[in-house]
């Protein structure tokens, strides 16, 4: 069942999968991913990035990291504006690879293209996203090691072995980044968040400010884990694409 969050299809313990993973896998067959696309359109146009703030396992992990760390550190606003565009690069690359792969299968070059992409046929982050490493790769390592396999022989765990190393490196980046910057992955890397953010600007659901009560004290801005410039938004609706509707700002100044 596809839902618009970043959760891996490779996990044997998950009853749902991320819509973007479904889209990548189905286009690689190729089959038009009607239901995954519909999940983005319907959920995004109605709820915006609600799923990012309340249902995504990556958001939950980063929330826990932030609570362990304490505080809500900010980064330079100009740097933040530049970095948050990175996730759109990943989103474009994801759709570019998946769509060109689907089209190539109707030509003679399709086989060569699939061979050139190798394990990235199903998407650039499918095998190496943090949730895949946590839910699939690490359990595989533990299982293999428990049966006496050589832990250093990564090809027995996942071939090609470099995917295991790359996945672990990205997981490390995810954990360190989440410790240094609140919701690091959601802000700067996650392509699912990028796509849902596009809908957030026009979604039905959203937060608003009461101009008769707001004193522009800045407490809401200070507590926001996504560093949304709330006071610069229209009071009728906070239509920033980074807002995950986490509700941290609600009542912050009361």
Question: How would you describe this structure to a colleague?
Answer:
The protein is an all-alpha fold and 254 residues long. The chain has one domain. It is built from 12 helices and 2 strands, in the order ββαααααααααααα. It has helices at residues 19-27, 34-47, 50-54, 57-69, 77-83, 86-104, 110-117, 130-146, 161-180, 184-188, 191-200, 219-223, and strands at residues 2-3, 17-18. Strands 1-2 form a two-stranded parallel sheet. Helix 6 (86-104) packs across helix 11 (191-200). It starts with a strand and ends in a 31-residue tail after the last helix. Residues 154-158 have low confidence and may be disordered.
Query: Can you tell me the overall shape?
Result: globular
Report mean pLDDT, rounded to a whole number: 84
Beta-strand residue fraction: under 5%
Distance between the ends: 41 Å
User: Biggest sheet: strands side by side, in what order?
Assistant: 1-2
Number of domains: 1
Q: Mind sketching the topology for me?
A:
Layout: E1 2-3, E2 17-18, H1 19-27, H2 34-47, H3 50-54, H4 57-69, H5 77-83, H6 86-104, H7 110-117, H8 130-146, H9 161-180, H10 184-188, H11 191-200, H12 219-223
Parallel strand pairs: 1-2
Helix pairs in contact: 1-2, 1-6, 2-11, 6-7, 6-11, 8-9
Task: Briefly say what this structure is.
By secondary structure, the chain is an all-alpha fold. The protein is built from twelve helices and two strands, in the order E-E-H-H-H-H-H-H-H-H-H-H-H-H.
């Amino acid at each position: 069942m596809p839902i618009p969050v970043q959760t891996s299809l490779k996990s044997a313990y998950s009853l749902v999968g991320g819509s973007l993973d479904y889209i990548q896998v189905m286009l690689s067959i190729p089959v038009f991913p009607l239901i995954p696309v519909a999940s983005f359109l319907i959920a995004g146009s109605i709820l915006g990035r609600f799923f990012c703030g309340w249902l995504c396992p990556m958001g939950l992990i980063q929330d826990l990291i932030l609570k362990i760390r304490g505080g809500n550190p900010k980064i330079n606003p100009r740097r933040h504006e530049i970095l948050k565009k990175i996730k759109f690069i990943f989103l474009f690359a994801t759709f570019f690879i998946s769509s060109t792969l689907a089209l190539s299968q109707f030509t003679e070059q399709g086989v060569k293209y699939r061979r050139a992409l190798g394990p990235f046929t199903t998407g650039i982050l499918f095998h190496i996203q943090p949730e895949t490493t946590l839910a699939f790769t690490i359990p595989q390592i533990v299982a293999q090691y428990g049966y006496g396999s050589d832990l250093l022989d990564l090809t027995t765990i996942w071939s090609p072995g470099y995917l295991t190393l790359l996945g672990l490196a990205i997981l490390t980046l995810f954990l360190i980044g989440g410790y240094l910057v609140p919701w690091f992955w959601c802000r700067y890397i996650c392509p699912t968040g990028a796509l849902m953010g596009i809908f957030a600007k026009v979604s039905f659901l959203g937060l608003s400010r009461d101009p008769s009560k707001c004193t522009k004290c800045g407490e809401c801005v200070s507590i926001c884990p996504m560093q949304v410039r709330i006071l610069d938004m229209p009071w009728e609706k906070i239509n920033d694409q980074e807002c995950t509707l986490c509700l941290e700002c609600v009542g912050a100044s009361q």
